Amino acid sequence: MQMNSRLIVALDFPSQTAALSAARQLNPALCRVKVGKELFTRCGPAIIDALHKLGFEVFLDLKFHDIPETVKKACRAAADLGVWMINVHALGGLRMMVAAKEGVDAVARPPILLAVTILTSMGEADLAEVGLPVPPLDMVLRLANLAKSAGLGGVVCSGQEASMVRDRVGADFLRVTPGIRPASASVDDQIRVMTPSQALAAGANYLVVGRPISHALDPAIALAAIVAEM
Ligand code: C5P
Predict the structure, then answer these.
(1) How far apart are CA 230 and CA 111, in angstroms?
(2) I need a surface site. Which of 7, 23, 73, 204 has the fewest CB within 10 A?
(3) Whose CA is nearest to atom 16 of ligand 1?
(4) Cβ(90) – ligand 1 distance below 6 Å
């Protein structure tokens, strides 16, 4: 397996059969895969085992957000599955993120632990509605710095935020970026998108790509094209 692949393919499918049939068309030397809430809620840890058997490293994208002790145990449970990367919501606060880090560090080979700062689906009006009347970018920066103080490895952030996080939080603090579309692909429901090369130039370390690969007529060809562009 090529351990330095910077591409993560989101397996957003409603069943193990569909997810594995897509995964079998991908090459674990060229990408990692992401399992999110729908697939994991339907299949449980069995899907992680199956993907590991196919040779993939897995980002388990469950975005934990709860009281510190609960998140610590959930992160420990995720780490016990042997996944490569997991995440929590930075809005759970510093103590929750410190607890999350303790949870992953309890295993011999801890997964990379990321924070989600402000969901890219939330704009300034949404933040004001929940009592946070500040520009989203200020919140992203504040929460990314908090995640760094808690010892986390990086954040999930948009391409637009990646350079700011790199320059103002730290180059060694990872930026994992969804909302990627090759120039020729459909934008789907994403609003602000970047091409793979634009996102890398903007400071992303890892790119998360879903439908342009998982729902392509030929996922292997779509994957190869994006890897070539990267
Ligand atoms: O199909 P598409 O490339 O839009 O999939 C992007 C993936 O990244 C999905 O799994 C989506 O849930 C996830 N994601 C996102 N935006 C975020 C965080 C995660 O699109 N801010």
Answers:
(1) 24
(2) 73
(3) 178
(4) no
pLDDT in tens, 108-166: 999 999 999 999 888 899 999 999 999 999 999 999 999 999 999 999 999 999 999 99
Active-site residue, from 34, 37, 53, 63: 63
190 lines ligand 1 (CB under 6 A): yes
Q: How far is the CA of 180 from the centre of ligand 1 (A)?
A: 9
List the residue whose alpha carbon is closest to atom 3 of ligand 1. Answer: 210
E strands along the chain, which residues? 7-10, 32-35, 58-64, 85-89, 112-116, 154-156, 174-177, 206-209
pTM here is 0.95
Please tell me if the CB atom of residue 179 comes closer than 6 angstroms to any atom of ligand 1: yes
What's the pLDDT tens digit per position in 94-117? 999 999 999 999 999 999 999 999
* 3-state class (DSSP) for residue 140: helix
Please, are residues 230 and 208 in contact by the beta-carbon 8 Å criterion? no
Whether 63 sits among the annotated catalytic residues: the reply is yes
Q: How far is CA 146 from CA 100, 143, 195, 204, 214, in A?
A: 13, 5, 29, 19, 34
Residues 136-145: contacts with CB within 8 Å, 24+ apart?
A: 137/161, 137/164, 140/164, 140/165, 141/165, 141/168, 141/169, 143/90, 143/91, 143/115, 143/117, 143/118, 144/90, 144/115, 144/117, 144/169, 144/173, 145/169
Residue with structure tokens 């009281």? 67
